[in-house]
Design a protein that fits this description.
The complex is a heterodimer of chains A (about 450) and B (about 475). Chain A has about 450 residues and is mainly α. Chain A is about 70% helix and about 5% strand. In chain A, strands 1-2 form a two-stranded antiparallel ribbon. In chain A, a hairpin with a 2-residue loop joins strand 1 (about 65-75) and strand 2 (about 80-85). Chain A is globular and about 65 Å long. Classes of the chains: A mainly alpha (about 450), B mainly alpha (about 475). Chains A and B meet through strand 1, helix 5, helix 6 and helix 17 of A and helix 9, helix 12, helix 13, helix 14 and helix 15 of B.
C-alpha cells in the first residue's frame, strides 16, 4: 500500500473509528465531555481535510487511487468486493463531505452546547461522515449500497434527534419508510448487475450492459436515487426531515444526503448512456421536481422548509444535466449548490437579523421577494390554484397515504381479522390492533 | 500440557452437552435454590462441550456443532437476561430441558432420536406449570407437527427398515407421502402460512424468553437441512412449493406486522418473517442463498432472543401494558436498553455493519437467482420489517417527556454485559463477516451439491480438492 492509498483509507475510516471508540466507551458507561469531543472531532476532520487535499493533488497528475482489500465476503461465484477508489468523480464528493462535516462539527459545538443529546449528535455525525465517505469512495455498487444505508439510518436518527417530542420521531419513521422502500431498487439493481454482467464494481471498467438489461438496471437505480434525493413523487418526506437540528438539516438536506442520489446516477452514467429511455425519464423526473420545488418552496412558511425546496429545485436541475450526459456540469452544480445551501441553512436561525442588516444596507427600502414578477404573469384563478397545490406540497403525501400506506394498513388489519378467527378475546391478551401507524401527527415542517 | 484423547471423544462431548442441562433441570427442580447459578453452570458446560466439538469437527461438516454452540450461548444469555421475577426453579428447569432436547436434535443422525428430541423439546410447552401458552393454537400446532413427523418417520422406517439418516440419503424414502408429511411438520413447527398464527399467540400469551428460545431452535429449518434436502433431492417439482410458501409467509407476516400494536406479537411477526427467509434460502439451490440462510439463522436467533429479552425487562420495570400505539419514551430512563434494542432490531433486518447485512445480501441474491419474480418479494418483506422494527423502537423508547415516574433501572451490569456481548457479535460479525460466512459457505457448497447431484453428503467432503460446481442452469 503506497502513501496515496494509505491516505484514502485513513480519510474514509477515521470518522468510523472515532464513532466506534466513543460508542463503545459510552456502552461501557463513560461519556466524554463536550470539549474533548469537539477537540477530537475537529482534529479528525482537519486531518481528513489535509488527506483529501493530498489526494486531490495526487490525481491532478491523472492517476486514480485504488485500494483493494479483497472480498468482504464471498460464497460460490458471488463475492462482495471491498474496493475503495479515489478518482475525478469521487474525490470532489469526498472533499465536500469532509469539509462540510468538519464545518458542521465546529458550528454544532457551540450551537448544541449543553444540549442533552450533544454526544448522540456527534456520534451520529461521525457515523454519517463515515457512511457518506464509504458511499463516495466505494469501488463497487455493493459497497456504495452499504454506505448508502448508513447515511439513511443516521439521517433518520438525526431527524428524531429531539426525541422527547412525537412529531420529529414520527416524521423520522416516515422518512425511514420511504428510504427503505426506494432502497429496494438499489439492492435489486446491484443483484441484476451481478446476474447479468457478473460484477457490480466500476474499478477497472464499468459492468457492460445494453438494451433492456441496461434499462432495467437504470430504472432500479433511478428509484433509489429519486428516493434519496427527494425527487417527485417522493418529495413529501423533505419538509418532515426539517424536524432535526439545524446543523444536521444543513449537511443532510442542504448538502450531502440529498445529493447522494445524483452521485449514484453519475456513477451509473455509462449505463444511462446505453438507455435513451432511462435518460429521458431522469430528465422528466428532474424537470418535474424542479418545477414542483420552486412552486412549493414559494408557499413554505418556514425558513428551513423553503431552503430545502430551493435545494430540491437545484437537485432537479442536476438530474436534468445528468440525463443529458453533462456529467461535469452536474458535479460543479452539486458542489456549488451544496456549499451555498449549507451556509444558508446555518444562517437560517439568524434570518431575521440578516434581513434587518440587508434592510439597513439598502437604505431602509423594502427587500423585494424573488419571483414576484413571474407569479404576476398568471391569472388570479391559476395563482390561487397553484397556491393551494403548493400549500399541500403537490398533494404528494395525500397520494402516498391514499394509494400506498392506507391500502397496506387495511390489508394488515384484514390479515389481523383472519388471524383472530377461532380465538376468543380472552386469550388474546394484547390484541390491540389499530390503524394509526406510519401516519405522522403532522405533515408540516419545523416551525 | 496435552489433553487426554478420551476427553475429546465426540460421543462423550455430545453426551456432556446434552446430559448436563438435563441433569441440571432435575437438580434445579429438586434443589429449588440458586436456580440461575445452576442454569448458568449447566449452559456454560454445554457451551464448552459444543465449542470443543466445533473445534474438532472437520471443515465443511461443522454446521450442527456450530448450531449447538449457538443454542448453548443463546440459552446462557437468556438465563442471564431473565428478570428475577421470572427466574423460578420451574422456568430454569424448563429452559434447561429445552436446551438438552434441542442439542439432541442437532447432534443426532438417527430418525427415531430426532423424533424423540422433537417431542421432548415441546414438553415444557404442554404443561401449564412450565411454559404453556393460554391460547390453544400453539398447543395444537406443536402437537400436530409432532404427529406429522412421527407419521413420516414411521412410514420411512417401515418402508426401508433403516433409521440412520446417513444411510437414507438420496433415496427419497417413503416417497411423496413421507415428503408431504415432513413438509407439513415443517410448516406447522416453523409457523409458515397458513399455520403462522400460533407463534404470535405463543409469544403473546406465554412466557416471552422461553418462547423465543423454542422458536429459535428452528426445528423446521433443521428438518429441511437434516432430512428433506439430503433425503429427497429429486423432488424438484415439489420442493419449490415450500420455498414459495416461505417467501409468501415472509411478505404476509411483514404486512401483518405493519398495523400490530402489541410489542410481543409484533416481535413474533418480525421473527417469523425474517426466519421464513431461512427456508427460502435453503431451498434456493444456490451457494449464496444457502450460506445466507445459515448465517441468517444465527442473526435471527441472536437478535430475536435479545429483543424478546429486552422487551421482557421493560415489561418487568414498566408494567405489562406496553403498546406500540403510543409513545412511551423509555429511552430517557433506559438508554442502554434502547440502544441495544435498535442495534439488534436493525441487525435483524440487515443494517450495514452488522452480520444481518451479509445474510440479507446473500439471501436476496440467492432468492432472486432461483426465483426471479417471487424472489422480489423478499427485499420487499425485509423493507416492511425494517419499518416495523423502527416503529416499535420509536414507540417504545422515544416520543414524549415522561412525568409519571422518576426511577426506572437501565440495563443492570449482568444484563449489560450479556447484551454487549450480543451486540459485539453482530457488529464484529458484520465488519468481518468472512469469519462466519466462509465456515458456512463450505457447508452451503455441500448442501448445494447434494441438491444438484443427490449423492451422499459425506462422500463429497472426502474427495480430494473442492467439489466441482454444476451451473444452476444445468439443474434438471
Amino acid at each position: 500500500m503506497n502513501l496515496s492509498q494509505a491516505i484514502l483509507v485513513f480519510v474514509v475510516l477515521a470518522p468510523g473509528v472515532v464513532f466506534a471508540v466513543f460508542a463503545l466507551l459510552w456502552l461501557l458507561g463513560w461519556s466524554p465531555g463536550e470539549r474533548l469531543l469537539s477537540w477530537i472531532t475537529g482534529l479528525t476532520f482537519t486531518a481528513c481535510m489535509f488527506g483529501t487535499a493530498a489526494l486531490v493533488w495526487t490525481i491532478t497528475s491523472g492517476s486514480t487511487v485504488t485500494v483493494a482489500f479483497g472480498n468482504w465476503f464471498a460464497v460460490g461465484d458471488y463475492h462482495f468486493p471491498l474496493v475503495l477508489i479515489g478518482d475525478r468523480l469521487s474525490l470532489p464528493f469526498l472533499a465536500l463531505a469532509v469539509v462540510l462535516s468538519g464545518l458542521i462539527a465546529q458550528f454544532s459545538a457551540t450551537y448544541l452546547h449543553r444540549e442533552p443529546g450533544f454526544l448522540r449528535f456527534f456520534l451520529l455525525l461521525h457515523l454519517f461522515a463515515f457512511g457518506s465517505l464509504v458511499a463516495f469512495a466505494a469501488g463497487s455498487f455493493d459497497l456504495l449500497a452499504a454506505g448508502w444505508e448508513v447515511v439513511g439510518i443516521t439521517s433518520v436518527l438525526l431527524i428524531g434527534f429531539f426525541q422527547l417530542r412525537p412529531a420529529p420521531v414520527e416524521n423520522g419513521l416516515r422518512v425511514f419508510g420511504i428510504y427503505r422502500a426506494c432502497d429496494i431498487g438499489l439492492f435489486v439493481g446491484v443483484f441484476a448487475m451481478h446476474h447479468w454482467a457478473g460484477r457490480a464494481s466500476f474499478d477497472g471498467g464499468f459492468p457492460t450492459l445494453t438494451g433492456t438489461r441496461a434499462l432495467i438496471v437504470c430504472l432500479l437505480l433511478l428509484l433509489a436515487a429519486a428516493g434519496k434525493a427527494a425527487q417527485v413523487p417522493f418529495s413529501g418526506w423533505l419538509p418532515r426531515a426539517m424536524e432535526g437540528p439545524t446543523p444536521s438539516s444543513a449537511i443532510f438536506y442542504g448538502a450531502i444526503s440529498i445529493h447522494a442520489g445524483a452521485y449514484l446516477l453519475l456513477r451509473a452514467q455509462p449505463l444511462l448512456a446505453h438507455s435513451a429511455l432511462a435518460s429521458a425519464l431522469v430528465i422528466l423526473i428532474g424537470l418535474t421536481t424542479a418545477i414542483h420545488g420552486t412552486i412549493v418552496g414559494r408557499a413554505s412558511a418556514d425558513a428551513k422548509t423553503s431552503l430545502a425546496y430551493a435545494t430540491l429545485t437545484q437537485v432537479g436541475l442536476v438530474f436534468i444535466e445528468i440525463g443529458f450526459g453533462w456529467k461535469w456540469l452536474a458535479v460543479v452544480h452539486i458542489l456549488g449548490n451544496a456549499t451555498l445551501r449549507t451556509m444558508q441553512f446555518l444562517r437560517a436561525p439568524s434570518m431575521l437579523h440578516d434581513y434587518h442588516q440587508m434592510h439597513s444596507a439598502i437604505g431602509g427600502g423594502e427587500v423585494s421577494a424573488t419571483g414576484q414578477g413571474i407569479e404576476g404573469l398568471f391569472p388570479e384563478r391559476v395563482q390561487l390554484w397553484l397556491y393551494r397545490w403548493a400549500f399541500d406540497r403537490g398533494h404528494l403525501d395525500t397520494i402516498l397515504d391514499r394509494w400506498v400506506i392506507d391500502p397496506l394498513l387495511q390489508a394488515s388489519s384484514s390479515f389481523a381479522k383472519l388471524d383472530r378467527i377461532g380465538v376468543s378475546r380472552i386469550t388474546v391478551r394484547r390484541g390491540n390492533v389499530a390503524c394509526i401507524s406510519l401516519h405522522g401527527p403532522t405533515k408540516q415542517g419545523n416551525d | 500440557m496435552s489433553v487426554p484423547g478420551w476427553v475429546l471423544h465426540k460421543t462423550l462431548l455430545t453426551n456432556v452437552s446434552i446430559g448436563v442441562p438435563w441433569f441440571a433441570a432435575v437438580l434445579a427442580s429438586g434443589y429449588r435454590r440458586h436456580a440461575r447459578t445452576v442454569g448458568c453452570i449447566a449452559a456454560f458446560a454445554s457451551i464448552i462441550a459444543s465449542a470443543v466439538l466445533l473445534a474438532e469437527a472437520p471443515k465443511g461438516d461443522s454446521l450442527y456443532q456450530a448450531l449447538m454452540l449457538l443454542f448453548s450461548c443463546l440459552t446462557f444469555g437468556a438465563i442471564l437476561l431473565l428478570p428475577r421475577r421470572d427466574c423460578t426453579t420451574a422456568t430454569m428447569a424448563g429452559i434447561l430441558f429445552l436446551l438438552g432436547s434441542t442439542l439432541l436434535a442437532y447432534s443426532t443422525g438417527n430418525l427415531l432420536v430426532l423424533l424423540a428430541a422433537w417431542i421432548l423439546s415441546i414438553v415444557p410447552f404442554l404443561w401449564t406449570g412450565w411454559f404453556r401458552a393460554r391460547a390453544w393454537r400453539p398447543l395444537a400446532a406443536l402437537l400436530l407437527s409432532s404427529l406429522s413427523l412421527a407419521l413420516a418417520v414411521g412410514l420411512i422406517s417401515t418402508r426401508t427398515g433403516i433409521i440412520s439418516i446417513s444411510n437414507l440419503k438420496g433415496q427419497s424414502p417413503g416417497g411423496v407421502v413421507a415428503f408431504g408429511l415432513l413438509v407439513i411438520a415443517v410448516i406447522l413447527r416453523k409457523g409458515i402460512c397458513p399455520a403462522h398464527a400460533w407463534v404470535a399467540d405463543a409469544a403473546d400469551t406465554g412466557p416471552a424468553i422461553p418462547t423465543a428460545l423454542l422458536f429459535n431452535g428452528h426445528f423446521g429449518a433443521l428438518l429441511v437441512a437434516k432430512l428433506i434436502v439430503p433425503l429427497f433431492p429429486f423432488t424438484d417439482s415439489l420442493f419449490p412449493v415450500l420455498s414459495y410458501l416461505a417467501i409468501l409467509t415472509a411478505l404476509y407476516v411483514a404486512v401483518r406486522g405493519l398495523a400490530e400494536n402489541s410489542p410481543r406479537r409484533l416481535l413474533a411477526f418480525l421473527a417469523l418473517s425474517q426466519s421464513a427467509c431461512i427456508l427460502s434460502g435453503l431451498e434456493s439451490r444456490t451457494a449464496e442463498g444457502i450460506a445466507g440462510a445459515i448465517v441468517n439463522w444465527f442473526v435471527v436467533a441472536i437478535s430475536t432472543v435479545a429483543l424478546f429479552g429486552i422487551l421482557r425487562l421493560l415489561e418487568v420495570r414498566f408494567g405489562e401494558n406496553l403498546t406500540a400505539s403510543k409513545h412511551l419514551s423509555l429511552a430517557e430512563h433506559a438508554p442502554r436498553l434502547a440502544v441495544s434494542f435498535v442495534i439488534f432490531g436493525l441487525a435483524l433486518v440487515g443494517l450495514p455493519g452488522t452480520l444481518g447485512f451479509c445474510s440479507q445480501d446473500l439471501l436476496i441474491h440467492g432468492a432472486l437467482t432461483s426465483h426471479r419474480l417471487i424472489g422480489l418479494l423478499l427485499p420487499i418483506a425485509t423493507a416492511m420489517n425494517a419499518i416495523s422494527v423502527f416503529r416499535l423502537f420509536t414507540r417504545l423508547f422515544l416520543g414524549k417527556r415522561r412525568t409519571g415516574f422518576t426511577v426506572m433501572a437501565d440495563a443492570l451490569p449482568r444484563e449489560r454485559w450479556i447484551l454487549a456481548s450480543g451486540v459485539l457479535f453482530v457488529v464484529f460479525g458484520g465488519l468481518f463477516p468472512n469469519a462466519v460466512v466462509i465456515q458456512r459457505s463450505s457447508e452451503a457448497d455441500l448442501v448445494q451439491e447434494a441438491i444438484h447431484t443427490g449423492v451422499d453428503l459425506n462422500s463429497i467432503g472426502k474427495v480430494d480438492g473442492p467439489p466441482e460446481k454444476r451451473p444452476i442452469a444445468a439443474t434438471p
